[in-house]
Amino acid sequence: MAPAVSLREAVALAGHFPLLSGASLEIEEGEVVHLRGPNGAGKTSLLRMLCGLVALHSGSAVVLGHDLALDRRGARRSVGLLGHQSFLYDELTVEENLRYSLRAFGVDPLRAGVAAERLGLGGRLASTQVLKLSAGQRRRTALALLVARDPRLWLLDEPHAGLDQEGRDLLDEIVSESRSDGRTVLLSSHEHERAAPLCDRVIWLAGGRVVKEPVVVA
Amino acid sequence: MTRSRILTTTGVLALVGIAATVWLGLWVTPNAVNFGDLVRLLYIHPPMAWVAFLAYGMAFLSSLGYLWRRTRDPRLDRLAGASAEVGVVFTGLTLITGSIWGRPTWGVWWTWDPLLTTTALLFVLYLGYLALRRVPGDPEVVARRSAIAALIAFVDVPIVYFSVSWWRSLHQAPTVDLSGRHLYVHGSMAWTLLLGFVSFTLAYAWLTAHRYRLAALADREADEGLRQALDERRAEGEVLV
Amino acid sequence: MSGYVEAGYGVVLVSLAGYALSVVSRERKARRRAAGPLLPERAPGQQDEA
Amino acid sequence: MRDAWLVAGKDLRIEFRSRVAVNQVIPFAAAVILLFGLALGPSRQVLAPASAGLFWVAVLLSSVLVTQRSFAVEASDGARDALRLSGLDPAGIFLGKALAVAVELLALEALLTFGVAVLYGARLTGALVLFAACVAATVGLAAVGIVYGAVASGLRVRETLLPLLFLPVAAPVLLGATKAWDEALKGTPSGGLGWLSLLAVFAVLYVAIGTVAFGPLLEES
User: Fold this and answer.
1) How far apart, in whole angstroms, are the C-alpha atoms of residue C10 and residue C20?
2) DSSP string for residues in B150-182
3) Cβ–Cβ < 8 Å for A76, A104
4) Which residue of A96, A117, A166, A189 lies most exposed, with the fewest beta carbons within 10 A?
5) How far does B125 lie from chain D, in Å, by closest CA?
6) Domain residue spans in chain B?
7) Residue B110 · residue B102 · CB < 8 Å
8) What is the residue extent of each domain of chain A?
């Protein structure tokens, strides 16, 4: 079976700064991978490139059969990102946001209600405008969208950040579930203890590329 | 270095041609009936306008080529930028010489003549285009959005011209009346005009080529910087391995 | 002559010459940068060499 | 096309909720109309004949604001990211956003028309031509605005760059719409038909360009 993600010497730029400096990796479908590395190692950039937000400058990158140099839109439709920004519309309610995005992806908007309920956003919160939500609740909304969409590849960028204890447990539960559903998950996190039990293996990043497990230098 | 030689030859020819145009235009050709010595502006003003339109046409074509995936090439983007910049210079000169023509002829520095008005709008349009090009960003992204802007701007040109000339034809301003002042271009005048067109076109080619080279050098420099940045970035990982 | 004509020719020639000079000098500067070392590691006294 | 309705519906709903158009753009347009009155008035002999032109300049300036707003609602600094991640067809996004902007501008124009009638003493004759000119001109403005809005979005200089790019291109719209209105207000609406067709050509052309160009603009591939 073709790997879910396959990068060869991938370079991505922000202006003239190399975000990725030649990253090579391969992730099989159904794997749950923990991305580790120091700040500025390129974890976020890698995730943003995989969902087609950062352009591939050189090298090759294939995501779920879509070559990122040619067909970023195809990749985007089967990939879900939980990033630092939640891309919600402030003026719309939680439910309207979910329904809009689901319809945009061609998913039955009725799944919004169940997902919101699951993330603790049911009842009164569902009809609250996003601008009145707390940061954690926004994050839950973004996560609810991912749950409802159930994409083939999940990209989670520091998913635990900003969530309360209950939310973190819920997140872990959701990740384990999608793992058993055979979804591929890339999860970047500094909280190793939290992430380790969820993941099959660890990929280390440093200086914008994949490195072997680092030995901490004194 | 034959390409360099062609370029140098072009430059020399342009220089000689312009010098000859000036000499013929200012001293050799006769004054025209009805126009007096103002007719001498004829040898530079229309060539300026022609070069401006030529330059924008060039920018348009290369932008189109850049947008089409199969001919996408950073060289086309560079050419579009270079040509548009030279075009803006010539547009400015078209406006100034037109204005200088207008003052003694019509008694005003500016008249809402269709060509003049279109040219003025072109001037602002392409100033915007150049401003957009100067906004820093990922080279490919910059090139793409510039190409789209060039496309939009160029499509606007005939619409502007058409609407302005229609607008003018409905408002016959009495101060501007060219009817009855037929200008007969003949003999030395025709040759000088032709020479003007040719030599300013050569000057356009020379300027654009050099502007293009400048852009290519800047791009190469950026690439060099990128390679260095890439090495540095990769080295960041080295420490940890 | 009226002065208008001379003004027109003058503006055109001066502007074109100015623009051409600026492009060529910038090009030359860029070329020198490209030829020279990228890092400022010049020995003192070496910079006078043209 | 389904995507277009979705995007337009979303944009209009946001606009309806936030009331930026009502609270800011309409007052802005009203201020422009008033200032023109101060600059050229108070003689109605001057203002009434100029009202078509002043009206359309006010619309043009307001459309810059509406366009900027249209991209500001897309997750503030990540407008292009949000649109790209949305999974929507780029042509659909373009048509939807342009449609939303056009609807907002038409509402604004309806209000401004009354303003012009009251403040400048313009007599509203030839209503059909007035209306048709509004529709055609607005579609053209919205199309150009959305393309340039996307070009400028995400740039740190977008607030200053957008008007510079947008206004010169929109010059034929200003001219055509003003002339069509002039004819209608003078009581000779048939004289405006030619200008109407000019506006229609402009609108069709730029809607077509936007539909095609929006993909490369967003996708960057």
Assistant:
1) 15
2) HHHHHHHHHHHHHHHHHHHHTS--TT---TT--
3) no
4) A166
5) 6
6) 3-219
7) yes
8) 1-78+152-218, 88-150
Entry pTM: 0.85
| Res. B35 pLDDT band, cuts 50 70 90 | low
> Which residue is it, tokens 């003694």?
B104
Nearest CB partner across the interface for B97, out of C8, C27, C34: C8
Token representation of residue C9: 């020719």
Give the Cα separation of A63 and A212 in Å (integer).
23
Tell me which of 1.20.120, 1.10.3470, 2.60.40, 3.40.50 is the CATH number of domain B3-219: 1.20.120
Q: How many helices (H) and strands (E) does chain D have?
A: 10, 0
Burial (CB count <10 Å: 0-12, 13-18, 19+), residue D143: buried
**What was the pLDDT predicted at D105?**
92
Residues D157, C22: Cα–Cα separation, whole Å: 27
Do D and B have ≥3 inter-chain CB pairs under 8 A? Answer: yes
- The dihedrals phi and psi of B73, each to the nearest 5 degrees, come to -160, 130
The D-side interface with B (CB below 8 A) comprises 144, 147-148, 151-152, 155-157, 161, 164-165, 167-169, 171-172, 175-176, 179, 194, 198, 201-202, 205-206, 209, 213, 216-217, 220
CB contact under 8 A, D13 and A88: no
* B192: its two tokens: 């000088």
pLDDT digits over D81-107, tens only? 778 888 788 888 999 999 999 999 999
Region at D76 (left for phi over 0; alpha for psi -120 to 50; beta for the rest): left
Task: Please choose, from the candidates C8, C4, C10, the residue with its C-alpha nearest in 3D space to the C-alpha of residue B105.
Answer: C4
pLDDT given at position D56: 92
* Low-confidence winner among A174-188, B139-153, C35-49 (lowest mean pLDDT): C35-49
At the second CATH level, the architecture of A1-78+152-218 is 3-Layer(aba) Sandwich (3.40)
**Backbone phi, then psi, for B204, in 5-degree steps?**
-60, -45
In the prediction, which pLDDT does A215 show? 52
| pLDDT score, position B1 | 58
